[in-house]
Amino acid sequence: MTGVRRGLFSNEAGEGSVPNAAATAGGKHPARQGLIQSFGVYVDTWLVCSATAFSVLLTGEYSVGGELTGVALVQHSLANVYGAWAPSVLAIIVFLFAFSSIVGNYFYGEVNIAFFEGDESGWLPSGVSRHAMNLFRLGVVAMVLVGSFAELGLVWDAADLFMGFLCLTNLYAVARLGKYAFIALDDYVAQKNRGVEEPVFNPDILPNKKGIHAWNDK
Prior knowledge:
Shape: globular
Order of helices and strands: HHHHHHH
Radius of gyration: 21 Å
Helix content: over 70%
Largest sheet: none
Distance between the termini: 43 Å
Number of strands: 0
Oligomer: single chain
Strand content: under 5%
Number of helices: 7
Structural class: mainly alpha
């Protein structure tokens, strides 16, 4: 259970959050962007996280049931190899990562509210929509504030709970839309097999284009 939860937190695979960023890419074919996003999961988990784990294990500072865990353990391990300055550098790196994650996830929420409540231009035309956006912004600030002072165990449990809700929502979408993704993938592979260097997606190959609001290949 711990491995699944931490793995999910590491790469967000199955949450449906990263497609918000992938949708803004200017690719010619959605399958190509999907393959890039899938590869990112392996880079994040196998390379980045494994490098962190090995950096702790190879220093010999890890002990089962020890008091130090998480970032504190990594800082302690690096300090024994590189010196007293290493924990400070790592703290700055973690801060930048946390800040960029907050900004990125806030952007996801704002764009989706505009998508559901706004018009095609992305503006929020109604007072109700503006109130929804303001409530969302207040909620983000409140969650960041609570997360800064709450116990670490409570923060992890809350993060796992909300990620579970995201996964349930996204897996429902995957079940409904997965067949269209396979059609797009088959089309991409077929074009590559024909020698097309940069396949171009044509929405007309889909048997049903209901729900496709826009496709921009620029």
